[in-house]
Automatic annotation (TrEMBL):
It comes from Ignisphaera aggregans (strain DSM 17230 / JCM 13409 / AQ1.S1). The chain crosses the membrane at residues 31-53, 60-78, 90-110, 122-144, 156-175, 202-224. It holds the Pfam family MFS_1. One of its GO terms (molecular function) is transmembrane transporter activity. This is Major facilitator superfamily (MFS) profile domain-containing protein. The lineage of its organism: Archaea, Thermoproteota, Thermoprotei, Desulfurococcales, Desulfurococcaceae. Keywords: Membrane, Transmembrane, Transmembrane helix. Residues 1-263 form the Major facilitator superfamily (MFS) profile domain. The keyword Transmembrane helix applies. Coiled coil: none annotated.
Length: 263
């Protein structure tokens, strides 16, 4: 459930063109840069979040992720009062940086935890995570479009950030950490001699999953503008392409990916 609610970030690209129009930009490239900043920040903070997980468990990381979303929402509140892109871009890119930290924290908090709940069924654990992320992609696009139409792009984005923060804080309060696995043999790593045993194969799998997820999310975060421009080039009205067809395609893709993750 945490992954589904927080997965609204998977569909952030739906906001991009509305923000472009708000500031009267001729190209969407400056808006898209936020995805690059977010992705690079996630990669940089991955190892640090892993160390925090090993020492303090998943609850602290969920708190960090929730705090990042909350702070990003506050920064967005400052951005919405800027009259020009020159004044707004610092806040926009700051949001990308903070969201990158939050993503790395939420990923590391949830992935190893679920895999430790299913130590003998890592494939099932991976499927659960992938299916929940894809469910978010299936559910959020239309909801975001409706929110943008009724309360505006900034308030809509702020809503997704704040509900993500709430989900993370609730998860941190109620998530029960998995039991620590202690072993003196096998192909594993005993972190700082603290009795926390991590199988090296599992560690390598987590790293691989992260970078696959990171590349996939980077593509997904650019999906709405790509779809919209492709549809417009095909002769479809821009408003229909942006508000109807692109969200439909994203939702359908999310549904198919749910089934592919569970098969």
């Amino acid at each position: 459930m945490i992954n589904i609610i927080a997965g609204s970030g998977m569909t952030i690209s739906i906001f991009f063109q509305s923000i472009q129009q708000h500031f009267g930009l001729n190209t969407i490239t400056p808006i898209l840069l936020v995805s690059t900043i977010s992705g690079l920040t996630s990669a940089i903070f991955l190892i640090f979040m892993g160390l925090l997980y090993d020492r303090f468990g998943p609850r602290l990381l969920l708190m960090i992720s929730g705090l990042c979303s909350f702070v990003a929402g506050l920064i967005l509140n400052l951005m919405m009062f800027q009259q020009s892109w020159d004044g707004a871009k610092f806040f926009w890119y700051s949001i990308g940086f903070i969201n990158g930290i939050g993503f790395s924290a939420s990923f590391i908090s949830l992935t190893p935890t679920i895999m430790r709940w299913f130590p003998d069924r890592v494939s099932i654990a991976s499927s659960i995570l992938m299916a929940s992320s894809n469910a978010a992609m299936a559910l959020w696009p239309y909801l975001i479009v409706v929110l943008i139409e009724h309360i505006g792009v900034f308030k809509a984005y702020q809503f997704t950030l704040l509900i993500t923060a709430l989900a993370m804080f609730i998860g941190a309060a109620f998530l029960k950490p998995p039991e620590k696995r202690v072993s003196g043999s096998g192909n594993g790593i005993d972190i700082n001699g603290g009795g926390i045993y991590i199988d090296t194969k599992l560690l390598l799998l987590l790293i691989a999953i992260f970078f696959v997820a990171l590349s996939s999310i980077s593509i997904v975060q650019l999906l709405a503008p790509i779809l919209t421009e492709s549809l417009v080039l095909s002769g479809i009205d821009r408003q229909i392409a942006e508000k109807v067809i692109a969200p439909e395609i994203m939702s359908i893709a999310g549904i198919f990916q749910i089934f592919s993750a569970l098969i």
